[in-house]
Amino acid sequence: MLNWILNIQHKYNPLHVHCRLVERGMSKTLSLSICKCYEVLVYSWLAWFSIVGAQVYRILRPVD
Rounded to whole angstroms, how far apart are CA atoms 54 and 6? Predict the structure, then answer.
């Protein structure tokens, strides 16, 4: 579960998204502009939820 949360946080990181857009042929300046807006509007919330989710998971996970 924790790996899943961290994987989502990594895949949707604005820098990662920027690189994938450039790989697909989008110009660097347009991709950068899109990712700046994406970081403010989407990723800030996603990062917050993933951090809280990881902390809740660590608290609630069964002790080995």
Answer: 8
